[in-house]
Design brief:
The protein has helices at 2-9, 17-21, 28-39, 48-58, 67-80, 86-99, 118-121, 178-187; strands at residues 138-148, 172-174, 191-205, 209-221. The chain is α+β, with helices and mostly antiparallel strands.
């Protein structure tokens, strides 16, 4: 983004909102913060703190991150920022959320807008804002082969195409059967056999996926290519 500012804008952050939004790494919030604080333009800037303040202040009960919530929050922020000092207003909302209208144990008695706060009036401070809806995690079946050579050493492989690309691990493949385990061994360019029965099952939870891994034992030999071992 800084390089683009130098190359295309003579070293000055552009004043026009659409030109700021076109810079790499500059989204709606950053563009609004720059516009209001640096240029004094009436542009809203909704971050997590501001979203919490406005959700409680106006009693918005749509889940954060939803289309309805985003539309309501940005419309409210745009209406509020139309005053004489938009930069100070945006900074005040951010500070209010960071220090008073906190996620837990908010200091409502110290809040300068407590008299107008819908959440406080209705006794919903603890339930607003409504948490972002989480997508259901995808279940992924995998097989892993703990394969030893003639000296009892365990083969570890790595590949940029693997699930944990670039990291060492046992040969793995999607699936759940003995045939899938044999395929994982072959894909690692190892020659050997895989025991017929799995010896363990492991569940590993990631942000968007739940890995259900069946572990097989095996014996292998070979010289995998340098990028895979």
């Amino acid at each position: 983004g800084a390089k683009r500012v130098v190359a295309e804008h003579d070293g000055h952050v552009p004043r026009a909102a659409e030109e700021r939004r076109a810079l790499p790494g500059v989204g709606r919030y950053t563009a609004g913060a720059l516009g209001s604080i640096a240029f004094g333009l009436p542009e809203p800037a909704v971050d997590g703190n501001v979203a919490r303040v406005l959700s409680r202040l106006r009693g918005f009960d749509a889940p954060l991150g939803s289309r309805a919530s985003d539309a309501a929050l940005w419309a409210e922020a745009e209406a509020l920022v139309a005053g004489r000092d938009p930069g100070a207003l945006n900074e005040a909302l951010m500070e209010l959320g960071a220090t008073v209208c906190t996620p837990r144990a908010p200091r409502c008695d110290e809040c300068p807008v407590r008299a107008a706060c819908r959440a406080r009036i209705e006794g919903r401070v603890g339930s607003l804002p409504v948490a972002r809806l989480r997508a259901e995690k995808k279940l992924v079946d995998l097989v892993a082969v703990v394969a030893t050579d003639a000296r009892g050493r365990v083969w570890l492989v790595r590949s940029k195409e693997a699930l944990f690309g670039g990291l060492f691990g046992p040969p793995m493949a999607e699936g759940r059967t003995h045939a899938d385990a044999s395929r994982a061994l072959a894909a690692a360019r190892l020659v050997g056999e895989v025991d017929a029965r799995s010896v363990a099952r492991i569940e590993h939870v990631l942000t968007h996926r739940v890995l259900q891994v069946r572990v097989f034992r095996g014996r292998a030999s070979g010289r995998p290519s340098p990028d895979r071992t």
